[in-house]
Design a protein that fits this description.
68 residues, 3 helices, mainly alpha
C-alpha cells in the first residue's frame, strides 16, 4: 500500500471553510461525533499553535455546528 493511500482522508488541510466542509463530510458519511485534532508539531512556534486553535474555535467549529 502506498503512503498516499494510507493518509487519504486522514488529515485535514485547507482554509477554515475547507476544513469545515471536510469535517461535515466525515460526519455525514460516517456518523462520527468525536474528533481528535493535533494542532502542534515538533518545531512549530507556539504563536502558530495558538492561531490554529483560535481559527478552530472561532471559524471552523461554528461552521460545522451550523452545517450538520
Amino acid at each position: 500500500m502506498m503512503y498516499e493511500d494510507l493518509v487519504k482522508d486522514r488529515f485535514l488541510f485547507g482554509s477554515p471553510e475547507e476544513i469545515s466542509e471536510q469535517i461535515i463530510d466525515i460526519i455525514t458519511r460516517f456518523g462520527v461525533n468525536h474528533f481528535v485534532f493535533g494542532v502542534q508539531y515538533p518545531g512549530m512556534p507556539q504563536s502558530m499553535v495558538l492561531d490554529e486553535m483560535q481559527l478552530l474555535a472561532e471559524e471552523v467549529f461554528p461552521a460545522v455546528r451550523s452545517g450538520v
